[in-house]
Amino acid sequence: MADADDVRAVALALPHVVEIESDGFDFRVGDKGFVWSYPERRPGERRVIRTDIAVLFVGDEAEKQALLLGEPTTFFTTPSYDGLPLVMLRLERVDVVRLAELVTDAWRMRAPADLAGDLDDHDR
């Protein structure tokens, strides 16, 4: 079972990552977000930052739908994320190895081309 500390450790282990000040966690590469805490919004209530749920960049709608349909207890979305290449990940449903794969994939999709090659150098 992963948690917010695991997200932070995995994200900060990647090259060129910046953590944005937040009530939860919020990580960027090349000024583009790739994983952050879920800002839950309920009608008539204040937004609540959920650090037990990560929002992940997934690249495109096909990948989003594959995750949502393939693992509906792990991934979900809300109407406010319709049309966006983002899914919410219930951290308690993944281990750190799977979390690292998901966060690294999100990083790869968001990193600018001139930074993306540094991941391979970083892994050596």
Question: What's the gist of this structure?
Answer:
This protein has helices at about 5-10, 60-70, 95-110, 115, 120-124; strands at about 15-20, 25-30, 30-40, 50-55, 75, 85-90. It is of the alpha+beta class and about 120 residues long. The two termini are about 25 Å apart.
What does the secondary structure layout of this molecule look like, with pairings?
Layout: H1 4-12, E1 17-19, E2 26-29, E3 32-40, E4 48-57, H2 61-70, E5 75-76, E6 86-90, H3 96-110, H4 113-116, H5 118-123
Antiparallel strand pairs: 1-2, 2-3, 3-4, 4-6, 5-6
Helix pairs in contact: 1-3
Structural classification: alpha+beta
User: Mean pLDDT across all residues, rounded?
Assistant: 93
Largest sheet composition: 6 strands, antiparallel
What is the molecular shape?
A: globular
Q: How many DSSP E strands? A: 6
CATH class: Alpha Beta
Q: What is the helical fraction, as a range of percent?
A: 25-40%
The rounded Rg comes to 14 Å
- Biggest sheet strand order reads 1-2-3-4-6-5
Number of domains: 1
How many H/I helices? 5
Report how far the terminal alpha carbons are from each other: 27 Å
Shape-level CATH architecture:
Alpha-Beta Complex
- Which percent range describes the beta-strand content? 25-35%
User: How would you spell out the order of helices and strands?
Assistant: HEEEEHEEHHH
Q: What fold name goes in the CATH topology slot?
A: Aspartate Aminotransferase, domain 1
Protein name: MmcQ/YjbR family DNA-binding protein
